[in-house]
Structure prediction request, 117 residues.
Amino acid sequence: MRGRLLAAVALSILAACGADKHCSNDAQCNAPEQACRLTVNRCLGYDDVATLSEGFCRDRGALCSDDLDCVPKETCRQGTCRPDPSLCSGPPHTCPTGCTWTDPFPCACVCQTCPPP
Prediction:
């Protein structure tokens, strides 16, 4: 019995490999069960302006402790990443020059570099 348990644990660890792999787009993850969650860097002086940088592959529907454990279109609810249709609802914001409104993730004006505050 103990041997089966150890084998099951080893198999689940192998299945999770790649869940923390660095990425800059979804194609670098194991599709369709994973997606790339880029790092959102909020710009000083703005509530909804950010740059994006390299992130990590995340499993869809994974166990989680916060939203950063989930793929971009999911939120952490009761310890599990779940799709969130209300994520980033409402009209697009007016963005600073050179930035583009991006939703549902990160639900912000995304820029190559942060504009002056």
